[in-house]
Automatic annotation (TrEMBL):
Source species, domain of life: Bacteria
Keyword terms, alphabetized: Antibiotic biosynthesis, Hydrolase, Pyridine nucleotide biosynthesis, Pyridoxal phosphate
Protein name (Swiss-Prot/TrEMBL): Kynureninase
Keyword Transmembrane helix set for record: no
SUPFAM superfamilies reported for this sequence: PLP-dependent transferases
InterPro entries: Kynureninase, PyrdxlP-dep_Trfase, PyrdxlP-dep_Trfase_major, PyrdxlP-dep_Trfase_small
Lineage per the UniProt record: Bacteria, Bacillati, Actinomycetota, Actinomycetes, Pseudonocardiales
């Protein structure tokens, strides 16, 4: 998009936003929860700062939605995108989602237009006229089977309640960090995720100099983690499906295989 419009992309971490944005900033896009470390960005504060400089904000919610409370309307965020296969429990192949603040509904453009987003879905008019409201974000036929997974996953989350889910995610994260300090730090691991509960999302990343090889060994022995370059081993903690005893067994197995 930047190349097509003759704009410049400037890379910056969440801590660099204040220095990076200015009166010529068009849009800032950031991950709410960092996919490597699980560090949480202050969504409301960053949104407010960017708006003060005249820009818009697009939030990536892939590692926060379904794991921590997200209040886009309250923060007056502009746009957000995310996936449903992680903490929304919809599984592989589940569709992504888009959030557009209501104040933008009648003015935002959908570049990939299709019949489902037209004002008259079955009119098959010669010219495309977008539907009013958020429906203009649709393009082609929805992936029905994938959306069934989303419906059931979101219903399960709603039944549990995001505050209870968050409380368990925090507790699971503490458990991983405590076990890592006791068992894995002496073996050359370090904790890469924030130790403060209010700054950590729903996973914990451990660093190890030989993480890439060790990750393959762990997966081969039934400990299903993610490797993140250059040296990160990410332990996912989906609260609705992960138990404390399971986490302990996994950490014990890591200790055994890395020892």
């Amino acid at each position: 998009m930047a190349a097509e419009l003759g704009l410049t992309v400037r890379w910056a971490g969440s801590e660099d936003v204040a220095a990076a944005v200015g009166p010529r900033t068009a849009v800032v896009t950031l991950s709410h929860v960092d996919y490597r470390t699980a560090a949480i960005t202050d969504l409301a504060a960053v949104t407010r700062l960017v708006h003060e400089r005249g820009g818009l904000v697009v939030w990536d919610l892939c590692h926060s939605v379904g794991s921590i409370p997200v209040e886009l309307d309250a923060a007056e965020a502009d746009f957000a995108v995310g996936c449903t296969y992680k903490f929304l429990n919809a599984g592989p192949g589940a569709p992504a989602f888009l959030y557009v603040n209501a104040r933008h509904h009648e003015t935002f453009g959908q570049p990939i237009t299709g019949w489902m987003g037209a004002a008259d879905t079955f009119g098959m008019a010669a010219e495309y006229v977008p539907a009013p409201g958020i429906r203009r974000a649709l393009s082609g036929t929805p992936p029905v089977l994938g959306m069934v997974g989303v419906r059931e996953g979101v219903a399960l989350l709603a039944e549990a309640g995001i505050d209870r889910v968050r409380a368990k995610a925090v507790a699971l994260g503490r458990w991983v960090i405590a076990l890592a300090d006791a068992w894995l730090v002496p073996l050359g691991f370090t904790v890469a995720s924030p130790r403060e509960d209010d700054r950590r999302g729903g996973h914990v990343t451990l660093r190890h100099p030989d993480a890439e090889r060790l990750s393959r060994v762990l997966i081969e022995h039934g400990v299903l983690i993610d490797f993140r370059r250059p040296d990160g081993i990410r332990i996912g903690l989906s609260p609705l499906t992960t138990g404390f005893a399971e986490v302990r067994r996994a950490m014990d197995r890591i200790r055994e295989l890395a020892g």
